[in-house]
Model the fold of this input.
Amino acid sequence: MKSINLIAASKGRPERMCSVLLKWINTAYNKDRISIIISIDEDDEHKDRYKIMLGDISMLYGNSIKLLINNNKNTVEAINRCKSEIDSDLIFLISDDTDCFDQWDKSVEEFIKDEDTFFVIKTEDGINTDLITMPIFSRGYLDSKDYIYYPGYEHMFCDTELTCVAHLENAIIFTKGLMFKHLHYSQGYHDKDITDEKNQSTFYTGMEIFKKRLANNFDMSGNLILGSIPEEITEWIKLN
Done:
């Protein structure tokens, strides 16, 4: 069995983050292979609560939990902080509103062949059809990168670039029926809070960065082939 890192950035939501982690741990087929990396901001007024609650989970279940506290400027920077701490075969980039299901770890491994070492797994989130919104990376894929998400983004459109690049690299493992629901406020799962407001405010700056990156082929050699990018994204490109 492969070792697993669960990584996430969170802000102002210690109870929600810890509730999500407890479900991920308790529904795993083999919880002993899971280690966790959580990245929060130095100015988070709830950081002491994160320390206490994550420490309690680690003590209760025995899983390694690293809490990274840094002066992050945005969500993408907080997520990228996790990269240097990764030490497992599979890396699940979850959030404090990502749901899971019984034996999720075993189900994911059923899609991976022994020879697969460079990949991003595309799961379903109940909202987006083509975007990779909850990526599952191989260690080999992340080792080939300097970052998890391109650091020019603040929040919005970072997953759009990730999806395009993974397609162009022919690195995506497609799954069918592997549903990790995104319990997003837009779907009525919770009330919109200040963290949601901040993330949503990055839409237009993210869009401009994406368009510039797209025009430069995401710093990749060769020519961008639009046919290799999901239709959901190519339609958006045509409209903008």
Remarks:
- DSSP finds nine helices and seven strands in the chain.
- Strands lie at 4-9, 34-41, 65-70, 90-93, 120-124, 136-138, 172-179.
- The mean pLDDT is 91.
- The CA atoms of residues 22 and 214 lie 38 Å apart.
